TrEMBL record:
Provenance organism: Anisodus acutangulus
This protein's UniProt keywords: Repeat
GO molecular function: RNA binding; zinc ion binding
PPR repeats (start-end): 104-134, 135-169, 236-270, 271-305, 306-340, 407-441, 442-476, 478-512, 579-613
Name under which the protein is recorded: DYW domain-containing protein
Amino acid sequence: MESVILPCKSIFPIISELPQNYHPKPKIPINYVEPRFTDTQLNYLCTNGRLSEAIHAIESISQYGYKVKPETFSKLIESCINERALHFGRKLHKKMRFLLEKVDPFIETKLLGMYSKCGSLQEAYQVFDEMHERDLFAWSAMIGACSRDSRWGEVMDLLYMMMGDGVVPDSFLFPKILQACANCADFKTGMLIHSIVIRCGMSSEIRVSNSLLSVYAKCGLLSCAKRLFESMEMRDTVSWNSIIMAYCHKGDIVEARRLLNLMRLEGVEPGLITWNILIASYNQLGRCDEALEVMKEMEGNGIIPDVFTWTCLISGLAQHNRNGQAIEFFQQMIANAVRPSEVTLTSTVSACAALKDLRKGRELHSLVVKLGYDGEVIVGNAMVDLYSKCGKLEAARLVFDMIPEKDVYSWNSMIGGYCQAGYCGKAYDLFMRMHEFEVSPNVITWNVLISGHMQNGDEDQALDLFWRMEKDGSIERDAASWNSLIAGHLQNGQKDKALVIFRKMQSFGFKPNAVTILSILPACADLISAKKVKEIHCCVLRCNLENDLSVANSLIDTYSKSGSIKYSKAISDGMSTKDIISWNTLIAGYVLHSCSSEAIKLFHQMKEAGLKPNRGTFSSVISSYGLAKMVEEGKRMFSSMSEEYRIVPGLEHCVAMVDLYGRSGKLEEAIDFIDNMTMEHDISLWGALLTASRVHGNLNLAIHAGEQLLKLDPGNVVIYQLLLQLYVLRGTSEESVTVMRPRKRNHHEESLISWSWTEINNVVHAFASGQQSNSEVPDSWIKRKEAKAEGSSSCNRLCVTEEENEDITRVHSEKLALSFALINSPQSSRVIRIVKNLRMCEDCHRTAKLVSQKYEREIYIHDSKCLHHFKDGYCSCGNYW
Ligand SMILES: [Zn+2]
Ligand SMILES: [Zn+2]
């Protein structure tokens, strides 16, 4: 019997520890432990944080069949909860039936709560399942347990079971259930509860109403939310926040803003959360400037921005490519002594990565370490990305290795870093090691590897990975996987292969997305890809991408460059919204097609639509005035750029001005303009002057321009040849020529070969000057025609050509292409499109005009200088090229 008492003695408090109202009973018999005395002891131990001793005592007490009071047992459970001592709780649970006279639902509910609060939902469920009777408290505890674990679906199941048992929630339980409704987007149950709430007469309980409001707001039922909100007798900040949030979710920020003002009029001051909702919403919509205004207003109202406010602004700016500002705001935040969160740091590090700002990035890194965020995986991933983008792969790897629990994004960042730097082997090694860390590659990992290998020219390995990903990796390919291949081929100059993949992608049932279209369309921006542009356009329509602004803009551009300006206009006319790029692209298209009046008309329409012209607009518009020979208007436009629009003219605007003077024969003004320029001259500038002086027969100026050109580009054989011809015209012998002959003789011969290409029935045919023509008839026809047209050349232009003159054995390539197209192109096609690598000569230009008249064909020839559109015997270039 001694042994029974011993443990009790051992835990018996020493006198000094005893509470003041403690009066020990005198003398107890050795074989008897009075339960009430034990209760007092246990209570004392619990209150003084000596739980383990209490549990130890309980074990002995139960062994000998003694009981404790329910209050004591409850107190013990409470202590287990406070100390999160699940193992002690389990011991109590095991002894419960021995220690208590009767187990009542109150104790069981308490036990259930203990399990859930100590993180064992499964055991909580066990207790719940074993209960004989479940009252509102038991249900509330079980529902509370599930909502604590965010198991919203289970909360809903419990609710229906509970109502089946005839138990009705009270005003404390309703908010929990409604929270589950909101998180499951189960608005039907929400509405059901709403009707119960009304029947129970609880609709005036603000806690309940606010929870209902939040269900409607989160489920996007704006009209229900609005009705409920308006019917509420009392509204507190929480109610206002919910309704404002509801409008923000719907993107109706104007109404949200109005409500905030109304809130203040009704005497409820917006709190930090209210302001933050509005600020976050502006940022999500990319309206960062307005977000900033709201923040200033909030500060004006005496509310200090917290870390959430700052983080919203910083990540909003970073996501909308305003990285410099994002970093500035971060610095302001630090200056305001607000401690950044890991999200703030991640956004700021990403901003540095986008700017490749290594210095700031390093500063941030040390701050990350100082604040103890270096173990956070999202911050680590952003740092890996930063160092990779800045080309500091060793630092990236160091950070990567230090991330304690790497997720798939960590691996993707590091693998991506190696790929970008061209170390595909290292990237692949890392990829193979992922399984050692029990991380499975995702579709991004595979795509990063595929595009990495493509970019580094390892097409075979890329394709191998592409086909292996489904079989070996059990990862389904997505549009981005196909896009990696397409973009890779395009980058390697393999347009045809890219198109094959593009078609294969569709035959495999994948819908190309905007990224696909935006990568493949520009590759088709030439005259021989006109049909492919239409094919891609059809695909755009099938995939419903025609409303994507960038896609539509790219179509306008590609159609115009492939010789179909009509389609460009049709696309532009069909657009519901247009940005400055849409306008500029179409204006530039008209300039390319020498349609000056359309370009100028569009420019005025654009201004009427309220858009401010930018640099791109101005160079096109000045060129349009040049085409229209409207020198004064062009000059005014040039000066209005800086005076009215505060845009400093760039080289492209100066070139357009030289062209403007040149086309109108104002060569002196052109050379004056060049002389007065402050910026450095370049090839395009002197090229424009050379064209002008050649067309207007000013030999000396042409030689001056040619010499300047050769100075800027000493290796250019074409210019060298032109210059020699000009010297001959002036009567200077080749020996006295002062300019240097281009060094590489081989290069010279190679690059002077003139090539022309045309596409017929989906096959591109290439022709080189002097090549044996495989179509005798039109060839000889053309020669006959030309003989007749002789003498029709009556201009004072300087007869210099970029390639050798034609003779009996040598016919220029565009003529070969033209005759081939005339014979072989289908009768239905009235348009012939040819691309040439050198500038057309006078003879070929004349021939093309004749053919367009005689055969009633439209002929587009894009040479190295401009796009010629021959129709009815005329060319759009107005003989100026
Ligand atoms: Zn020619
Ligand atoms: Zn022309």
